[in-house]
Known about the structure:
The protein has 279 residues and is an all-alpha fold. 75% of the residues lie in helices and 0% in strands.
Amino acid sequence: MSFELLKKRFRQARYLSLDVALGAVLSAWAVWKLSDGHHSPSALSLVVLGLTVFVIYALDRLLDVRKTDQPTTPRHAFHAQHQRILWQILVGVAAIAFGLSYLIPSAVAFFGLKLMGLVAVYLFIVSRLPYRNAAQYAKEPVTALLYVAGIWGPVFAVHPPGSWVDWTLCAIFGGVVVQNLLLFSLYEARLVPGANNLSTWWGPDFSGDVLMVVFLLVSVGGVFTGIWADFPYQRRMSLVIWAMSGMLWSMSFRKDFFARNERYRWLGDGVFLLMGLLL
């Protein structure tokens, strides 16, 4: 395989959000070990999570490209070009995920079904709204909330959090997800003509200030969990999450560098792979 073909395949995998799905799986795996560092994860639960994340992101893009006022980004253009086969793949993957859900722990499956109901309502509402509608501004925070719930919720459903440290780790992880989505919003407001997102509403200066504030809050939460952690694993997790937050905040600088070839997306989604360091 030539280098150019390899680059093309990696680019297509990123357009399909496979890196996001992998980051979600590694994050959930790390969270499964949270209470004492030794809990074995539910392997099938991780598989179902990865498949579900792929389905949600693909479905969101395929619904987006049906809107006439949706700006064309490389990933939207890819989904528009291949939408027929992507719909077929999406249905097949969704069927596999649904079938496997009968084999995962009942508490995880029950939580997942409730969350999927919320996601279905969310996607239905978003798909019915024009891209220029002001409700689009809520997309980043709602997506962040659903993503964090999908990672931490199933684990907490099986192993309830043991102390405030677990909840704080969940909160600062959520802060990282907010940073990720707001950072992408900030870059798209700058790079995509006609973009309509939270950053275009807030403006670049205020969006940058929010990114800094979230980083500071994550840092404070990381310090508290690092000092009062019940287990060494919690301390390591707080350090990894803080590093992820710092990397995202640093990407709000040198915008020309990170905008080139969508490096901000490669690195922005790639920070969640750092959760694999905890495995």
